[in-house]
Amino acid sequence: MLFERPTDDILYDALISRDAAYEGFAWAAVKTTGVFCRLTCPARKPKRENTTFYGTIAECMEAGFRPCSRCRPLVKFGETDPVVTKLVEALDADPFRRWSEDDVIAAGIDPSTARRAFKRRFGLSFLEMARLRRMGKAADVLNEGASVIDAQLDAGFESGSGFRSAVTKMFGEAPAKLRGKNLLRADWIETPIGPMIAIADSHALHILEFAERKALPAEIRRLQAATGSSIVMGRHAPIDQMESELKAYFAGEDTSFSTRIAGHGTPFQRQVWDALRKIPSGEIRSYGALAANMNLPSSTRAVAGANGANQIAIVIPCHRVIASDGSLTGYGGGLWRKRWLLEHERRMVAKT
């Protein structure tokens, strides 16, 4: 985080007043009920001595607290934060506009409030997100063979040097070199347990990861090196298909995925990932059992390594593999998500 965490006294005051400015900045865990809540929760307020504050949902769940059924802290953030919802809708309606703080103020929103809301949810500010959308448009124009000056004006840059600097920083290429270059597209997919980033070309999905996964930046660099492609904000059809399939999965309606996945990884890694997809929903395997099922009983460590190298979360269900003693280990999206996914799938299977 780029902002210092407020003191617990400030957070408690925010909880009492249901101050939306701190929404998502911290969560309130109530010792007497065992639940954790948003700071805007409408439920009866706990006493100060019974309230503990955590900076992440993961910390709440790892401390043994369950999500509140009133404020539903696991549902997607945009449904309950009017700042995020309003600005995202405005950006979707006019993605190529050169947005400024004055535009945010004109929408009746304090820029610092908007900045906090977007940073804590997406890891970048609204204005940074808007710039990415403009840059994606510029890349499209260049890719279609337009001149650099046309792309510059379409992206809203008055300064040619500023435009070239921004493009080079974003995509690692000078603007003229983007012309005709293969482009991957990246976009957010909201889920009940946090945003995921999906990266795809027009044919297949390359990456699907929870946004805060520590290995994500390295995965993106490897992908760019392997494909020789630049990445811009936007969508190809596989991202839309994956979003629809994830929606059905989280709604408990369907556990199957048919979105085409790009063929990354070594032959051994792909063999492990195929084995992971054969584990039925609602079931788990140990690393040793998975290796044995593959007729590789002496390769448990190698299987575990391939499991950790998976960059298509949920669809290639590495969360279904646990330690031999039954403990949850090794999930890049966070152990609390692994626990959540396993419980979600157990309930889905129980309903059938």
Keywords:
Double Stranded RNA Binding Domain; 4 domains; alpha/beta; 10 strands; four-stranded mixed beta sheet; DNA Methylphosphotriester Repair Domain; Arc Repressor Mutant, subunit A; globular; 352 residues
Strands, helices and their partners?
Layout: H1 8-17, E1 27-30, E2 35-37, E3 51-54, H2 57-62, E4 66-67, H3 82-93, H4 101-106, H5 111-122, H6 126-143, H7 148-154, H8 160-171, H9 175-178, E5 183-189, E6 196-200, E7 205-210, H10 216-227, E8 230-233, H11 237-250, H12 267-277, E9 285-286, H13 287-293, H14 300-308, E10 321-322, H15 335-351
Parallel strand pairs: 2-4, 5-8, 9-10
Antiparallel strand pairs: 1-2, 1-3, 5-6, 6-7
Helix pairs in contact: 6-7, 13-14
Helix count, DSSP H or I runs of 4 or more residues: 15
Determine the CATH superfamily of the largest domain: Homeodomain-like
Number of domains: 4
| Helical content class | 40-55%
> What is the mean pLDDT?
80
What is the quaternary state of this protein? single chain
Distance between the termini: 42 Å
What is the CATH third-level topology name of the largest domain? Arc Repressor Mutant, subunit A
Total strand segments: 10
User: From the 3D coordinates, which CATH architecture of the largest domain would you assign?
Assistant: Orthogonal Bundle
Pfam family, one: HTH_18
Domain HTH araC/xylS-type: 107-181
Binding site for Zn(2+): 37, 41, 68, 71
Catalytic activity: a 6-O-methyl-2'-deoxyguanosine in DNA + L-cysteinyl-[protein] = S-methyl-L-cysteinyl-[protein] + a 2'-deoxyguanosine in DNA; a 4-O-methyl-thymidine in DNA + L-cysteinyl-[protein] = a thymidine in DNA + S-methyl-L-cysteinyl-[protein]
